[in-house]
From TrEMBL, chains A, B:
Residues 5-61 form the HTH lacI-type domain. Keywords: DNA-binding, Repressor, Transcription, Transcription regulation. The keyword Repressor applies. It holds the Pfam family LacI. SMART domains: HTH_LACI (SM00354). It comes from Paenarthrobacter nicotinovorans. Signal peptide: none annotated. PANTHER family: HTH-TYPE TRANSCRIPTIONAL REPRESSOR PURR-RELATED, LACI-RELATED TRANSCRIPTIONAL REPRESSOR. This is LacI family transcriptional regulator.
DNA sequence: TTGAAAGCGGTACCAC
DNA sequence: GTGGTACCGCTTTCAA
């Protein structure tokens, strides 16, 4: 537990002043410090295993190279962690560190968490949520460069840039995949009303039908929820005791867990997937969609890309000067990606 | 984006010196500063919305009240986030902040992550993993108070305290639950060999049989893996085309995802759960075990408790002085908790 | 009871 | 080319 070497230690060992050490180690040695002094300094630094104290740097420079990430429950919940992963990729590659705080969905903690982060001199702030949702922007976020990932400001005049997935196109392309297999009666288990993602995916579902000239029935769309049991019971309602002619030939789900429930129901009813019924997931949840039997065809949420895009925007405004901030567009939409596996196939006739 | 108030601003406004401000706001005013000055200072601080700059504090005090948490993939993966949640609970309640870094399973990044954390003057370090596993302790962790959560040092003379779940008892109690329902032929899908948790749970399974005087057969134990497909195929091997007399009446799984696969297989085979087959999970994964149909009986991993216990130990050594460090026990085992739901029931006869 | 000053570890400006 | 010094914001000791 011995103390770390300081710049002064290096200076002494190299027989020079602290300022010389600072100059050399920051690449401003040439033209200011004699070559041989430079060598001695670098040598001494290496020997002492010197690295500058980040705290002192922050205090001096008023910049910490730390980005604060505030999440509603990304750390604690099983979902969307890759947004932070992607954000961290970019941050590290540009010499920043991310400091993550999770409020576990207690928005009352937002303000104080932001305050803590601000007290630590973070250079920028990112708010990340599990699932697309509108948020109330905590006061403090407007005081330094900030960005929203997977969430957005509902106010008429949004003040922060946000990065979100393109759910409408996602819903549309998922539906189109099913239409291309010849399905003409596609049910949709659409999540729950309190999520803004649900209606967007429904919108995409409608668009796909309209574009393809295939009529669709509103009663085929269910606001079911997001979990296995919801998928199970939704599918039972659609399939159990219904004659093959009246059954949907495909069920599209607003996430992979619903799809698991649907598959379970199909199995109980003796229906084979995808021969008798095609099942489409959404999210491409790791170790669920890819390990289901059969593996789920699904619409992958671009989590890493969202994180990367959000962090890139943020660091650009931090490093690029404040000049054109106002002129920037306030929204980035990242496309979802269709992942075709084995749970979808040609429509039975 | 206007600058924050400093202690000097407060001092000016209250018409006193900076030192007075410092004394009063740190509760050392009485006996040093006049009562009315104290009031004016507190008043001014409130008006300016003053809070001390954490960076300056760290530099000055050589303590940051930040705990660095290094995880292999807790943030990014869907698992075990609640360890961090529990750790954060305790940290916050004791006036600390946690700084989380996730290496995404790249142990080559461990050392530099620790270095970064150390440069930021963290007062303590916690290493957290997804799933119980042995780790190589990164050098830097020995330089300041540190603790391991859900992982441990394999070396003969462990240098760091670790907190882990009691997997043997967990495996035993899960098995006992099944034995109590009258099951006498219990198969075990035991995860994979590369996880130290798997053999421990098998051990518990054996212990339960031995204690109950029920013979068991080694060929009923399969190192299957951890995912849905593994559970599915494992169950198929055990059940498909096997006469009821030769079938296990219960399948115990090393996690809930395996249990989902087993349930899926049972459904395909027309077996009713729990009437024809009892299924036992492990982990009590949120929104999987509780939302399965039927809901899974499972052995809950004490994730929050692990995080809380680890953070408590760590903060105790940081705040409690170094005195008795050496005398402390180096291991804390946290019991798992049986959660009875609907996937288990009396053995058929 | 109060204020001045040193110092935490750096950086950067300015004499020399 | 080099070293001295002020300053970032705060705490703490010491003298007035």
């Amino acid at each position: 537990m011995n103390r770390k070497a300081t710049a002064l230690d290096v200076a002494k060992r190299a027989g020079v002043s602290r300022s010389a050490v600072s100059l050399v180690l920051n690449g401003r040695g040439d033209g200011n410090v004699a070559k041989e002094s430079q060598d001695r300094i670098r040598q001494a630094a290496k020997e002492l295993n010197y690295s500058p104290n980040a705290i002192a740097l922050s205090l001096r420079n008023q910049r910490s190279r730390v980005i604060g990430i505030l999440s509603d429950e990304v750390v604690v919940s099983p979902f969307d962690g890759n947004i932070i992963g992607g954000a961290d990729d970019i941050a590290r590659s540009r010499g920043f560190v991310t400091l993550v705080m999770d409020t576990e969905r207690d928005t009352a903690r937002d303000a104080s968490a932001i305050e803590t982060l601000l007290d630590r001199q973070v250079d920028g702030l990112m708010y990340v949520t599990v699932g697309l949702k509108p948020i109330e922007i905590p006061q403090g976020m407007l005081r330094i460069p900030s960005v929203l990932a997977n969430c957005y400001d509902e106010h008429p005049q949004p003040q922060l840039h946000h990065v979100i997935p393109d759910e409408i196109t996602g819903g549309r392309e998922a539906t189109e995949h099913l239409l291309q297999w010849g399905h003409r009666d596609i049910a949709l288990l659409a999540g729950s009303v309190d999520s803004p993602a649900a209606p967007l995916r429904v919108q995409g579902y409608r668009d796909a039908h309209a574009l393809a000239g295939v009529p669709f029935r509103d009663e085929r769309v269910f606001m079911a929820g997001w979990d296995i049991d919801a998928g199970y019971h939704g599918a039972m309602k659609l399939l159990d005791g219904v004659s093959p002619a009246d059954r949907p030939t495909a069920i599209m789900c607003a996430n992979d867990r619903l799809a698991v429930g649907v598959a379970l129901a199909a199995a109980r009813l003796g229906l084979s997937v995808p021969r008798d019924l095609s099942i489409m997931g959404y999210d491409d949840e790791a170790r669920i969609a890819d390990t289901m039997v059969p593996a789920l065809t699904t619409m992958a949420l671009p989590l890493r890309e969202i994180g990367r895009a959000a962090m890139t925007t943020l660091l650009d405004t931090i490093e690029g000067g404040e000049g054109t901030t106002a002129a920037r567009t306030m929204e980035t939409m990242v496309p979802c990606r269709l992942v075709v596996r084995e749970s979808t196939g040609p429509a039975p006739h």
